[in-house]
Amino acid sequence: MSERIFLSSVQKELAAERRAIRDFVRGDPLFRRFFDVFLFEDLPASDRRADDVYLDEVGSCALYVGLFGQEYGNEDSDGVSPIEREFDQATALGKTRLIFVKGTDDAGRHPKMANLVRKAGGQLIRRRFNDISDLNAGLYASLVEHLERTGRLRTKPFDAAACPDATLADLSRERVVEFLAAAKAERGYAIGPRTSTPKALAHLNLLDGDKPSHAAVLLFAKKPQRFLIASEVKCMHFHGTEVEKPIPSYHIYKGTVFELIDQAVDFVMAKIDLAVIPQDNAITSQVKYELPYKAVREAIVNAVTHRDYTSNASVQVMLFADRLEVWNPGELPPTLTIALLLVPHASIPHNPLIAEPMFLATYAEKAGSGILDMIRLCRTAGVRAPEFRQDGGQFVQILWRPASAASERVEAHEAHDEAHDPISWSERRIMAACLAAPRSTVELLATLGYTMRTGNFKRGLKKLLALHLLEMSMPDSPRSKNQMYRLTDKGRAWLATQSTMGGQP
Low-confidence residues of the chain, pLDDT below 50? Predict the structure, then answer.
């Protein structure tokens, strides 16, 4: 039998969040087995007072979920709003209460709402949230904890469950710090890079007891594939339009989910064509890739974030002469269809505890918009709209390359010896950025669209220095915060000899 969740009364400022919770719970394959959501807006018209309906529903529910925003709401003759009446009723009846407070502090909050936040904080643990992604992840963790505590759930969802044999010592403190710094700077995340690793993981709901969860390992482990072998990404490049052996270019990438995305995107962008468009009265030229960078990245982010990590299959990225295919293990939730993906839809992440950090680190944008962004980007670039299909246990995303040059592309790539071209797409972008003037680490990260110094970035920078294509402005102080990187004469000569073949900067 389903337990009913009472969602706190109507508040205009939180209307989107209320609908998101309803859609999230009803759309999640696990939660819809155990819960139903009461949302006042879903009730048919009746002649009963709204206040009576609210309080009666609190009495019939199993869980009370309170969303506390800036506003306090309309007050009755005693100066009390419906949301506080509901909270008090749930408290008096001994209901399980889950309280989510919007915002990292109480600045600008209505005084009576601020008092209600403090009253709730004196009785139970509150969670704060900044956006819908944050809220969904917090609710996900709270509902899993409730089901486990009440004995209705014997096994936790994969991303929330402890990773066997993994300990906090297997996580990289450096990666946690880099992530927290990016999340704070880009999304205004509540905690900063000085936060201890256990506290940071607890804040992200990435601990199962005192052990890191599977999500924590995928996000921050020193060697994630030691624990989750199939979490690697396989990238293949075929000169023609079919899968044929031998495969001309085949790479298997390992690392955290952030590094997997960076490396796979780098693989694709290094092999697609571009046009260099001179700009009037400009020092540099505009570069236009045949496939939009953000669309390629979004497809790979989708695959890595939402794949089924219990599967022994890996994400596969396959570049053909006429298209890019991104395959990931897993199927769409039952409430989502291919047709619904093509219109505004609710976000139902397969791994919410991975999806939220992806958002915080700006690898993903607002919930439910990724597919629509891909379609818009491709149409704006003048290429055929992406296609999507479910192929057995795999979800497939297809980005079409410009058809007019497909045959020429086959011939050109067959004549191209990859062994003579060891510099990757991101490394070329770094060199191109340093062409006009020395650049700082922050500027180079921005050039690549990165928010963190991931392993892919660090390896690329180290490689360019080792090849003497770049040099430090302060070689005797390599860790200086004022360090800059500049192109060497050798680097300038290398850039000058490059054609536009295969994604040059």
Answer: 282-285, 411-412, 414-420, 499-505
The Cα 411–Cα 416 span in angstroms is 9
Alpha-carbon gap, residue 500 to 31, rounded angstroms: 51
Same domain, 194 and 251: no
* Whether the Cβ atoms of residue 383 and residue 296 lie closer than 8 Å to each other: no
φ, ψ for residue 105, nearest 5 deg: -145, 180
Kindly state whether residues 41 and 96 are assigned to the same domain. Answer: yes
- Assigned token pair, 323: 């298209």
* Residue 238: inside a domain: yes
Closest CA to 28 of 154, 141, 151, 161: 141
Please report, to the nearest 10 degrees, the dihedral formed by the alpha carbons of residues 142, 169, 313, 255 taken in order. 110
Number of domains in the chain: 4
79 and 112 belong to one structural domain: yes
Structure tokens at 346: 């609710």
CA pair distance 228, 164, nearest whole angstrom? 10
Give the three-state DSSP class for 71.
Answer: coil
Whether residues 310 and 362 share a domain: the answer is: yes
pLDDT recorded at residue 302: 94
pLDDT digits (tens, 9 = 90+) for 94-133: 999 999 999 888 888 999 999 999 999 888 778 888 888 8
234 found inside a domain: yes
- Provide the token pair at 374: 């891909």
81: containing domain: 3-149
Helix pair angle (257-269, 293-306), 10° resolution: 140
